[in-house]
Write a structure and sequence with these properties.
This protein is mostly helical and 108 residues long. 62% of the residues lie in helices and 0% in strands. It has helices spanning 3-23, 40-75, 91-96, 104-107.
């Protein structure tokens, strides 16, 4: 893959992550604990949904950091080199995940 194609794919992923973050903001809002508007089980469901939304947000933020780090490596002309040993990362490995920072040997 060419650098500009990689950059475009990573930038598109960042935009998608930002959009998902925007769309899911309401599901992470504090749960209203007013017993007059909902029962105990409904509140428990709402709390569970909120917890899942918060975990999803955490994972999305982790992914965002990986994507940004890959873009930084691309800008520094270090993309495709293992951040641990400096050897080239296998193309098949990068094809599976463009944000992969290490070669297979260093990942184990």
């Amino acid at each position: 893959m060419k650098d500009e194609d990689i950059r475009a794919a990573l930038t598109a992923e960042l935009a998608e992550l930002d959009e998902l973050e925007r769309l899911s903001a309401e599901s992470r809002a504090p749960v209203e604990l007013d017993q007059t508007t909902q029962g105990r089980l409904s509140r428990m469901d709402a709390l569970q949904s909120q917890a899942m939304a918060l975990e999803t947000q955490r994972r999305r933020q982790q992914r965002r950091l990986r994507v940004q780090a890959a873009l930084d490596r691309l800008a520094e002309d270090e993309y495709g080199a293992c951040i641990t040993c400096g050897e080239d990362i296998e193309e098949k490995r990068l094809a599976l995940d463009l944000t992969t920072p290490t070669c297979l040997d260093c990942a184990s």
